[in-house]
Design a protein that fits this description.
Elements (H helix, E strand, L loop, with lengths): L1 E9 L4 E10 L5 E9 L14 H23 L2 H26 L5 H25 L2 H23 L11
Antiparallel strand pairs: 1-2, 2-3
Helix pairs in contact: 1-2, 1-4, 2-3, 3-4
Subcellular location: Membrane
Family: Belongs to the TMEM14 family.
GO molecular function, one term: fatty acid transmembrane transporter activity
Length: 169
């Protein structure tokens, strides 16, 4: 048999602390679980917004470049080589520019716009190719990944770019 007591306590730092205590019978031991709720959080403080564009852009650019190289080596496709290495290189460049700007506690909207344009172009081109051929690999996969990245970049533009941690973090 368990008895449970819930209490909400607001601390002096503006955080709500929920204390849940449970008494176990017959051991007579107590479990106390602290769950913290920050009452002052707004939309900009959520974890998703703290994801920086270069964290995704650099791996995305590497995947595109390696995919173009693999397409060339397997099929001899110069279009795959040019498209993959071209967009991969642009994405890597934009990711590195964004990272360097972030290190200086600045936003690089040029890099963010370049990333968005590359991702949107890949979504459009590979989406059309998928609609024509119905082949998942590589057109469907690249179109899907690029559509997700385009959405992420548009979201980053709408929320003001990368956000910097405060001095206390």
């Amino acid at each position: 048999m368990r008895k449970r007591r819930d209490m909400n306590v607001i601390t002096n730092k503006g955080k709500r602390q929920k204390v849940v205590s449970t008494k176990h019978h017959p051991q007579n031991s107590f479990e106390v679980i602290y769950i913290y709720f920050d009452c002052s959080k707004n939309l900009r403080d959520t974890q998703f917004i703290k994801m920086h564009d270069f964290c995704f852009t650099i791996p995305y650019g590497l995947i595109m470049a390696v995919g173009g190289l693999i397409g060339y080596l397997k099929r001899g496709s110069t279009a795959s080589l040019a498209g993959g290495l071209g967009t991969g290189s642009l994405l890597l460049l934009a990711g590195i520019v964004s990272l360097k700007a972030f290190e200086k506690r600045r936003n690089s909207f040029f890099a963010l716009i370049l990333e968005t344009c590359c991702a949107f172009t890949l979504t459009f081109v590979m989406g059309q190719r998928y609609m024509q051929t119905s082949k998942i690999m590589p057109a469907g996969i690249v179109a899907a990944i690029s559509a997700l990245m385009t959405g992420f970049y548009v979201y980053k533009i709408a929320t003001g770019g990368n956000h910097f941690p405060s001095k206390s973090e």
